[in-house]
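Structure (tokenized):
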């Protein structure tokens, strides 16, 4: 079996246009080919909060920010675990409670100055603080009355923009993403429930045709990157994201009649 970094020019591919509320994602997807196996990367051990992970989180919050109503913070008592597997077990139990309550969520892991992990969550529902406090208190197994009173904090979000602003601040606070030396198995720094479906269009092309179709978007986007956002961008060969792409005229985001 061979692994090809990019399709050959005449290989059949599928061009996918994913339209989100704020962005448009253009993807070139390889089609199955006899005798060829396309192998993806293997996720290694997570030791920190990468820039790539932060960009993915910002993308999710920006494109689904209209559904967030509540900002929730979960903290640990004075006696807290130093193993990420134990902490993520507590988080999974709490997220299961949210799923049963039919609540969508995005969670972000940070560390306090004392070295204790804590979580910030965006929620799609207004939940009762007393119920949440009791649930987190029971999941953690805390016997500290102070933790029952102060282990959870809820803030109602009046506008979607405020939700995005809050979470972008948490994402950019790199000093709270540094893992304490005695903390093990940190695992993922953020996660989310399944988001509402977005609009997808799919077209069959050769790789030569699909790359030619994307050339217009590449040129427009490269100018935006350097002029408006002051960072460089280059073509990766299999698609890219049009940030603020939803503002591109609709007639541009369509399959060409003739290539």
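Design, position by position:
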């Amino acid at each position: 079996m061979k692994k090809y970094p990019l399709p050959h020019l005449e290989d059949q591919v599928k061009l996918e246009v994913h339209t989100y509320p704020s962005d448009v994602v253009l993807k070139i997807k390889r089609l199955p080919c006899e005798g060829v196996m396309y192998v993806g990367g293997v996720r290694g051990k997570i030791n920190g909060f990468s820039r790539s992970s932060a960009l993915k989180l910002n993308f999710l919050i920006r494109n689904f920010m209209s559904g967030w109503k509540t900002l929730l913070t979960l903290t640990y008592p004075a006696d807290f675990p130093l193993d990420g597997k134990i902490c993520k077990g507590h988080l999974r139990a709490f997220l299961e409670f949210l799923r049963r309550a039919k609540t969508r969520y995005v969670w972000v892991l940070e560390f306090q100055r004392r070295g204790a992990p804590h979580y910030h969550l965006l929620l799609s529902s207004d939940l009762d603080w007393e119920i949440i406090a009791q649930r987190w208190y029971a999941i953690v197994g805390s016997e500290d009355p102070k933790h029952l009173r102060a282990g959870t904090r809820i803030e109602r979000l009046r506008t979607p923009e405020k939700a995005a602003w809050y979470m972008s601040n948490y994402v950019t606070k790199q000093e709270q993403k540094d893992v304490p030396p005695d903390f093990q198995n940190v695992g993922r720094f953020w996660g989310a429930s399944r988001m509402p479906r977005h609009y997808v269009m799919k077209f069959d092309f050769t790789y030569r045709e699909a790359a030619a179709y994307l050339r217009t978007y590449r040129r427009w986007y490269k100018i935006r990157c350097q002029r408006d956002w002051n960072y460089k961008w280059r073509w990766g060969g299999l698609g890219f994201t049009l940030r603020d792409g939803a503002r591109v005229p609709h007639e541009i985001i369509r399959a060409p009649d003739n290539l």
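Reviewer-requested clarification: The chain has two domains: 12-44+197-232, 65-192. Residues 80 and 159 are 34 Å apart (CA to CA).
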